[in-house]
Design goal:
By secondary structure, the protein is of the alpha/beta class. It has 15 helices and 16 strands. Strand 4 and strand 5 form a beta hairpin. The longest helix has 24 residues, at 376-399. This is ATP synthase subunit alpha.
């Protein structure tokens, strides 16, 4: 018979067996050295690449991201002010890969790459987080690009069309209108069922303020988020900015929506990554860039895609911007990004200074998606126009050497002058695609051959006003219907009736 003592011992054993102890296990390290936004750590033996680490101090937590895993320590970049971190400080691994807040609350806001508000409109409440690095969708998940992104810029929509899911590079020297093209494209997405993300990398704060003011003025901030890492921010924020912007775009992609993302510009992004890599003592390569600088941009731009219906049917269209030095497109970073993208819009300084703005060089620019990203009517008129533009360039160069030209050559030169005038366009005034088609049709069918070159701009503005008042049905048919003989007859009649009023 069990004694009271045995009973008590049995109870104690049961209590010990039932009692669970759980001590928190943390991966903790110490700061060996810190400077220039880079910190070297020891002791973080279980940390992962791109994992967030936390530094505690009297002013709160400062976060960093692991970029180097070495035999005797860890190299990380600091996301913020590193002056508060000292040698010997404790660093704790978070167990989370770097992620940023995303969601509809971000629309209409100016944020930094960590998702914090910069526009003074209060804190952004977001309950969804996306990792900034993500493997791009595979071949099976994608479908071909055949829906247009209307930029509202005549030279681009006609000769270098951009489709939903495409990556189209904007390249050229500084101060010749690269950002202007991107901003006009964002403004033109009003009513097009397209979300926009404008990623600013290393630009002046005053320039960004002007751009945001313009976007507000044109109502574009209703569907746009500005991700800002300006020139005074540390290189770490410039480095993660385009990835953070893409994470936000992928949130809407996963909901089956279409997104346009602009990276302004990836030249400064590469420079920031070079700075980080050299400070982390990674071996330099060509132009002192690290060996993986191609992978830096390829893994970013491959995330732009158009998904098939089985995977949601959304799209991300990317417009990366690259700045060249003295028109040198054969430099390291420009050739890298040209090889990754689906075409480029090349802006030429000579055209810009002659007053041909936007200064798009139609000969060196190309869209590898081609006319499949155009509506039927634009496809019909733009094919002839591109040929005429090419012929005009050759004839204009030839005509400089001789004055005795035949009648046909003179006619083509006159047509080319009018084409150059038609392709000129003011900034912040994108044009609806139906209006573009009307003026192009008038051009290639000789309706403006008898209009003086200096009067082309006024003729075009008058035609658009006349079409809006008298030819509303024709304008609607141009964008909705197949381009048939009946529609062509109506367009001819509309242009002829307008000319009769002059």
């Amino acid at each position: 018979m069990a004694t009271t003592k045995d009973f008590i011992i049995e109870q104690i054993k049961r209590s010990i067996a039932a009692h669970e102890t759980s001590a928190p296990v943390k991966n903790v390290g110490r700061v060996i050295s810190v400077g220039d936004g880079i910190v070297k750590l020891s002791g973080l033996s279980q940390v992962a690449m791109s994992e967030m680490i936390e530094f505690k101090n009297k002013n709160g937590a400062i976060y960093g991201v692991v970029l180097n895993l070495e035999e005797d320590g860890v190299g990380a970049i600091i996301l913020g002010d590193y002056s508060e971190i000292k040698e010997g400080d404790e660093a704790t691994a978070s167990g989370r890969i770097l992620e940023v807040p995303v969601g509809k609350a971000m629309i209409g806001r100016v944020i930094n790459p960590l998702g914090e508000a910069l526009d003074g409109k209060g804190k952004i409440e977001a309950d969804t987080f996306y990792p900034i690095e993500k493997i791009a969708p595979g071949v099976i998940a994608r479908q071909s690009v055949n829906q247009p992104v209307q930029t509202g810029i005549k030279a681009i929509d006609a000769m270098i069309p951009i489709g939903r899911g495409q990556r189209e590079l904007i390249i050229g020297d500084r101060q010749i209108g690269k950002t202007a093209i991107a901003i006009d494209t964002i403004i033109n997405q009003k009513g097009q069922n397209m979300k926009c993300v404008y990623v600013v990398i290393g630009q002046k704060a005053s320039k960004v303020a002007n751009i945001v003011t313009r976007l507000h003025k044109h109502g574009a901030m209703d569907y746009t988020t500005v991700v800002l890492a300006n020139a005074s921010d540390p290189a770490s924020l410039l480095y993660i900015a385009p990835y953070a912007g893409t994470a936000l775009a992928e949130y809407f992609l996963d909901k089956g929506e279409d997104v346009l993302i602009v990276y302004d510009d990836l030249s400064k992004h590469a420079v920031a990554y070079r700075e980080i890599s050299l400070l982390l003592r990674r071996p330099p390569g060509r132009e002192a860039y690290p060996g993986d600088v191609f992978y830096l941009h390829s893994r970013l731009l491959e995330r732009a895609c158009r998904l098939n219906k089985e995977h949601g049917g959304g799209s991300i269209t990317a417009l990366p911007i690259i700045e060249t030095q003295a028109g040198d497109v054969s430099a390291y970073i420009p050739t890298n990004v040209i090889s990754i993208t689906d075409g480029q819009i090349y802006l030429e300084p000579d055209l810009f200074y002659k007053g041909n703005r936007p200064a798009v060089n139609a000969g060196l620019s190309v869209s590898r998606v081609g006319s499949s990203a155009q509506i039927k009517a634009m496809k019909k008129v733009a094919g002839k126009m591109r040929l005429e533009a090419a012929q005009y360039r050759e004839l204009a160069a030839f005509a400089q050497f001789g004055s005795d030209l035949d009648v046909e050559t003179k006619a083509k030169l006159e047509r080319g002058k009018r084409l150059s005038e038609v392709l000129k366009q003011d900034q912040y005034s994108p044009l609806p695609v139906a209006h573009q088609i009307l003026i192009f049709y008038a051009l290639i069918n000789g309706f403006i051959d008898d209009v003086a070159v200096d009067d082309i701009v006024q003729f075009e503005k008058g035609l658009h006003r006349y079409a809006e008042t008298t030819g509303k049905e024709i304008v609607r048919h141009i964008t909705e219907n197949e381009f048939n003989e009946e529609l062509e007859t109506e367009m001819k009649r509309l242009i002829s009736d307008y000319k009769a009023t002059l």
